Amino acid sequence: MLDGLAVHANTEERDRPPAITRMALTTAERELGLPAGALDLPATPPASSPDIADTTD
Fold it and tell me: Looking at residue 11, what is its pLDDT?
C-alpha cells in the first residue's frame, strides 16, 4: 500500500494532524475490517514472553 505521503517518512511528525499521520493505518484498518485504532501501538509495551529456544521439557 502506498500512503501518498512518503515524502514525509523521515521528517518530523509535529504539526501534522492525526488524520495525516494515521492515513496508512486508517486505510489498512478499513480494508482489513478492523476497528479504528486496532493497529495503533499499545500505550505500554507488552510483557516479554520467554523465547521458545529458552524453554525446557
Answer: 62
